[in-house]
Amino acid sequence: MIAALVTLVLAVPAAFFLILRGGGGTTAEPGALAPSTPGSTAPSTGPSTGPPTSASVAPDGRIPVSTLQNATLDIPAWPTDNVRGAPGRLQFRDGVVKLAHREAATGQAPYGERMEIGTVAYGDVDRDCADETIAEIRCGFEGGSIQLIAFDAHAAT
After folding, report:
1. Which of 53, 58, 111, 112 is in Cβ range 3.0-4.6 Å of 130 for a Cys bridge?
2. CA atoms within 13 A on the CB side of 139
3. For residue 95, what are the CA distances in angstroms to 4, 46, 47, 50, 118?
4. Distance in angstroms (rounded) separating the CA atoms of residues 64 and 104
5. Helices and strands (H, E) in the chain, number of each type
6. Cβ neighbourhood burial of 46 (10 Å; 0-12, 13-18, 19+)
7. Distance between CA 137 and CA 108 in Å, rounded?
8. Separation between Cα atoms, residue 137 and residue 127, nearest integer Å
9. What is the pLDDT of residue 153?
10. Count of Cβ atoms closer than 10 Å to residue 114 Cβ
11. What pTM value is reported for the model?
């Protein structure tokens, strides 16, 4: 319970900062770049090595919420101190992935049986002068665990 509260205390201000800094919202703007296929989203890469030049500015990485909710997404491993979700490539349907029931060992954090996409915001996470899509991925029940994950739309994939 404490870990969930700490996660919320850290995640909510970070999401608001990204929304205010990037001018993003919870819905995509008309004409936002959509990946070529639902499975073409991938986690954003690390920070760039320097400021981009006009010839190297990255394409807009905004993924419309409706596309994100029905895409195959790469989810990183969950911390082991709270409700755990499934890592790896997961196919979301209407923003939800149902997981098979799994018992945790005695003294270990439980496994969730449902993951869902929560709030979606847009901001320039890797400083390439283009917005990425930041999604809140929730797992569990009555709090559970939350991860903020940055995704980027790539027209070439």
Report:
1. 58
2. 27
3. 21, 25, 28, 35, 8
4. 35
5. 2, 7
6. exposed
7. 21
8. 23
9. 77
10. 14
11. 0.61
Both tokens assigned to 66: 């409706």
40 contact partners, CB below 8 Å, separation of at least 6: 71, 153, 154, 157
- In this structure, the number of other CB atoms found within 10 A of the CB of residue 14 comes to 13
Measured CA to CA, the distance from residue 53 to residue 117 in angstroms comes to 34
In our burial notation (b when 16+ CB lie closer than 10 A, e otherwise), range 118-130 reads: ebbbbbbbbebeb
| The pLDDT of residue 11 | 58
Distance CA 14, CA 123 (A): 11
pLDDT digits (tens, 9 = 90+) for 45-73: 444 445 545 445 556 789 999 999 999 99
Question: How would you write the pLDDT of the chain (157 residues) with one tens digit per residue?
Answer: 555 544 555 555 555 455 545 544 444 333 333 333 344 444 444 444 455 454 455 567 899 999 999 999 999 999 888 899 999 999 999 999 999 988 989 988 889 999 999 999 999 998 888 899 999 999 986 678 999 999 987 654 4
